[in-house]
Design brief:
Distance between the termini: 49 Å
Strand content: 15-25%
Strand order of the largest sheet: 1-3-4-5-6
Oligomer: single chain
Number of strands: 6
Number of helices: 6
Helix content: 25-40%
Structural class: alpha+beta
Order of helices and strands: EEHEHEEEHHHH
Shape: globular
Amino acid sequence: MTTARLPLFPLNSALFPGLVLPLNIFEERYRAMMRELLKTPEDEPRRFAVVAIRDGYEVAPAAPGMPDQTAQPERGPAAGFGPDPLKSFHGVGCVADAATIRERADGTFEVLATGTTRVRLLSVDTSGPFLTAELEELPEDPGEEAGALAEGVLRAFRQYQKRLAGARERSLSTGAELPDDPSVVSYLVAAAMVLDTPTKQRLLQAPDTASRLRDELKLLRSETSIIRSLPSLPAFELTRTPTSQN
């Protein structure tokens, strides 16, 4: 297996290969990461790894917290992730290639990256200005009957899209071409479905494409059935929003 050491960017969601990731960078630890990535020549990939947070906070508290208003906020690259950050992250993530890193006048960054390769998290280094990790590249094995499963998943996904658009009272654009490569299908559907982070993480770390597609087929049928019985969808995004202290 190929291993590499890369900057580590924890998020409250899973990134899949082939998917675009826009980022608004304002914390100092991630600004330092972007400044380091900008040292890489433009003709070389500016890579970092994205992992989903299992237990911790995407943004470190910047003010005294509840209930102890005298407690000082954490600082440093591992702020919000406890004494052993490795335990705070899911074990499988995705390498991201930053196509655009634009620094704003106030020192924050606008970043546009794309997921490329799945990796297993081996260790986390907290000694620098930002987290780095030793990573092991994971192969994408097709598994058995991946082609036939992909066809079934695409059919189910189209039905899911129609039900989702109807429940949200939105129009569905049917002109977009969907891919036919089984692994691409599996990642596209995993990213597009309205699922919680643990479920998306389960799909990301599936042992092969066929296993991921089988899981998605079950999820699509289940979710489509649920949506069919609901007059409208709940505000799913609210479950990902930090609670205001006001």
